[in-house]
Design goal:
mainly alpha, Serine Threonine Protein Phosphatase 5, Tetratricopeptide repeat, 15 helices, globular, disordered C terminus
Length: about 375
């Protein structure tokens, strides 16, 4: 890190020697922005991200239409603004990022080496805006863009599994909105194809395992075919096995496996599924210390499933713990909303499934 810090200091000194109008000002802006971006990715200091964006805006201003570096400047600024939206939730950052990705895509005619990635970036940002605002035209456009990206990533392309996953996830979201079964069936086919391209050791295997499992469980909920649910549980177990302590995928894998076991308990009534789901929700909660963004989800999930076990076995300690957990979850919300514990609930801004809140591994 000391090397990176020194590089930043040197680029800042170089930029100071390249005032407006200097032939090398663009190069200094670009180099300093690149180093600050690297430091933000290492340390997560938002001031580095803000400064990166300011520098990229200045660099873009030096790239009028026709400039050889305009595409790269549009892309870099769009990505940085999208990341700042992910950090701060300011919708104007996302809107500008979408506009910049559109402008970059115009500069990628058929055959351009960056066309598929630009399609992918615009599609992901549009899906994110759909998740925020619920405008179906954003989702429809994201699906069209991801289809176009997939068509450019023929078998053997290094990013084909990414496009298969992204399109599959888009289609499942549309199924959740509109209930068209062909969308769900196609999503499953795409996730199966993506998983086939992610053998053991592949960096995208956990994502593909979870995505396919989630889609199969949704199909089981719709059609009642328990073999879909059994396969989903096996896939979630495989994903969890690839998540050692500290892995970013451990929490969603624990949570998703627990939810699938809970659903299977509802279908078959095997208490061992319920007990295992409780243990998994406990493990997920242990990964959510005070202040963690998923703490309220985990408190709610564990409380709900303990309530279910109380109804089966009438052990008062389960009911007492469920009440304590619901109190703790409620304390994390500024506006208290009282709910009947017998009623299925889904926490705000979380994709829900059945009785509990769910974290999806998607795009």
């Amino acid at each position: 890190m000391s090397d990176l810090d020194e590089a930043i200091n040197l680029h800042q000194a170089a930029l100071a020697l390249h005032p407006p109008g200097h032939s090398d000002q663009f190069m200094s802006l670009k180099n300093l922005a690149s180093n600050l971006w690297d430091r933000f990715n290492q340390q997560g200091v938002l001031s580095d991200l803000d400064e990166t964006i300011n520098l990229e805006q200045a660099a873009l201003a030096l790239c009028p239409p026709g400039h050889s570096d305009r595409f790269m400047s549009l892309k870099n600024l769009a990505i940085s603004l999208r990341v700042r939206f992910d950090q701060g939730g300011v919708l104007s950052d996302l809107d500008v990022a979408i506009d910049l990705h559109r402008a970059a895509l115009v500069l990628c005619p058929p055959g351009h080496s960056d066309q598929s990635m630009t399609l992918n970036n615009l599609a992901n940002s549009l899906e994110t805006r759909f998740n925020q605002q619920g405008v179906l035209s954003d989702l429809e456009e994201a699906i069209d863009l991801n289809r176009a990206a997939l068509a450019l990533r023929l078998p053997g392309h290094s990013d084909r599994s990414m496009s298969l996953n992204n399109l599959g996830s888009n289609l499942q979201v549309r199924f959740n909105q509109q209930g068209v079964f062909s969308d769900l069936d196609e999503a499953i086919d795409l996730h199966q194809a993506a998983l086939a391209l992610c053998p053991p050791g592949h960096s995208g295997r956990i994502l593909s395992l979870n995505n396919l499992a989630n889609s199969l469980r949704v199909r089981c909920n719709q059609h009642g075919v328990l073999s879909d649910l059994d396969e989903a549980i096996d896939l979630h177990r495989a994903a969890l096995a690839l998540c050692p302590p500290g892995h970013s995928g451990q929490f969603p894998s624990l949570n998703n496996l627990a939810i699938s076991l809970h659903v299977r308990f509802d279908r078959r009534g095997v208490l061992s599924d319920l007990d295992e789901a409780i243990d998994l929700h406990r493990a997920a909660l242990a990964l959510c210390p005070p202040g963690h963004s998923n703490q309220s989800i985990s408190l709610n999930n564990l409380a709900t499933i303990l309530w279910v076990r109380f109804k089966q076995r009438h052990v008062l300690s389960d009911l007492d713990e469920a009440i304590d957990l619901h109190r703790a979850a409620l304390a994390l919300y500024p506006l208290a909303i009282m709910v009947d514990p017998c009623v299925s609930t889904t926490l705000p801004a979380v994709l829900g499934s059945d009785l509990t809140s769910e974290v999806f591994c998607l795009t």
